[in-house]
Amino acid sequence: MTDAPLQTVTNAARLLKAFLTREESLGVSELARRLGLGKSAVHRLLTTLCAEGLVEQDTRTGGYRLGLVVFELGEAVRVHMDLHAAAGAVLAELREETGESAQVGMLDGHEVVYVDRLESTHALRLFTETGRRVPVHCTSSGKVLLAFAPEPVRERFLATAELARHTPHTLADPDALRAELVTVRARGWAEAIDEREVGVASLAAPIRDAHGTVVASIGIGAPVTRFRAMPRRRLARAVTEAGEAVSRRLGWSPEALADASPLEKES
């Protein structure tokens, strides 16, 4: 037996879909007619959706239209779809070149979500499924995403996040993590060895969108024994080149970053 849908949520979704027309805005009466609902019910829905930024009222006409949050959600969907398409072949090449598990991560609050992942072909490998969430402060993907985040985002994280100590090697002190992030920004990649789990190591680099904004990370994960046996410079070059390759597929060019102002480079 499946759960019955919540009627209020259903009506809110139907209301939002009613704006998929060419009208500049729609009034309460017209929305009520199209949805087959009472004006008071539509008004309550609009009030709630306005409070969440999903709908906004046109002060000139009194009608309603979709809000900026809907545009932002659409952009997030587009980025996810574009990122998956852009990263697929590069991720496979990175796994082939290094022989290790390769993954793409995105920042979500105080966590990193692995949105794409290819497992190593080694018998001894890491089992981290797509969709898994990991802490920001003790993973290479998290460090990259935090290091290249806008400064207010970075400082807010350092001021409010609980930096749990998962192993003796975890950077659980905000000042130590801040110093590490400076290094990551300077060299363009991050590593984490025994920080989230003893015996596990990773290295990651940023992925930029067409505007140069870091939207994701790409990296590899491996048992520490194999990780230490591989030349660090070769691994860093492989991962940073993979990040640049995905970024180019998203429309970014290093020339644009070189010409950007310091404020633009901060993002």
Provide a descriptive summary of the structure in words.
The structure is a single chain. The strands form two sheets. A six-stranded antiparallel β-sheet has the order 5-4-3-8-7-6, sandwiched between helices. The chain has a two-stranded antiparallel sheet with strand order 1-2. The model has no long low-confidence stretch (mean pLDDT 86). It has two domains: 60 residues, Arc Repressor Mutant, subunit A; 195 residues, GAF domain (Beta-Lactamase, 2-Layer Sandwich), CATH 3.30.450.40. It is elongated and about 70 Å long. It is an alpha+beta fold and 267 residues long. 31% of the residues are buried. Helix content is 49%, strand content 18%.
Tag the structure with descriptive keywords.
267 residues, alpha+beta, Arc Repressor Mutant, subunit A, Beta-Lactamase, six-stranded antiparallel beta sheet, two-stranded antiparallel ribbon, 18% strand, elongated
Percent in strands:
15-25%
Terminal-residue CA separation: 48 Å
Nearest-integer average pLDDT: 86
- Give the number of domains: 2
CATH topology of the largest domain: Beta-Lactamase
Concise synopsis of the structure shown:
This protein is of the alpha+beta class and about 270 residues long. The protein contains 11 helices and 8 strands.
SSE layout and pairing:
Layout: H1 7-17, H2 28-35, H3 39-51, E1 55-57, E2 64-66, H4 68-98, E3 101-108, E4 111-118, E5 133-135, H5 140-147, H6 151-160, H7 174-187, E6 190-193, E7 200-208, E8 214-223, H8 224-229, H9 232-249, H10 254-259, H11 262-266
Antiparallel strand pairs: 1-2, 3-4, 3-8, 4-5, 6-7, 7-8
